[in-house]
Amino acid sequence: MKKTRLFAAVALLSVLFASCAFHTKRSFGPYSDAENFYNKGNYSKAIEKYQEYLAGNPQGTLAAIAEYYIAKSYKASGDMAKAREGFERVTRQFPGTSWAAFSKEQLAVLDGKS
């Protein structure tokens, strides 16, 4: 009887912990932090965290996006020279991607052509 109760308790706890795992928020480390800072308008912290992500994942699946949002963060902060450098870097490093196309659009805006 005691073994049955113990087994039932362990089984119940296992189910509860397993169900909690499906409800946790996924995080991509510094990249997730960067997105949160960007969305809150804290562009200097966003840049810092995007750069931290890139330091560990220079060819990661989110690298083009991180580079693009570094440039957008500089633009939003008013540093148009660094924004331009960032958008140009995206077009060079990730040609043929939608992020390169978005960067070209941003460069056109900076040039007053759009």
Record keyword descriptors for this entry.
114 residues, mainly alpha, Serine Threonine Protein Phosphatase 5, Tetratricopeptide repeat
Cα distance spanning the termini: 77 Å
CATH class: Mainly Alpha
Share of helix among residues? over 70%
- Structural class computed from helices and strand pairing: mainly alpha
Low-confidence runs (pLDDT<50, min 5 residues)?
6-13, 15-24
Strand and helix order: HHHHHH
Give the biggest sheet: none
Helix count, DSSP H or I runs of 4 or more residues: 6
Can you offer a commentary on this structure?
The chain is an all-alpha fold and 114 residues long. It is built from six helices and no strands. Residues 6-13 and 15-24 have low confidence and may be disordered.
Quick overview of this protein structure:
The chain has 114 residues and is mainly alpha-helical. It is 75% helix and 0% strand. The longest helix has 20 residues.
Write the topology of this structure.
Blueprint: H1 2-21, H2 30-39, H3 43-56, H4 63-77, H5 80-93, H6 98-110
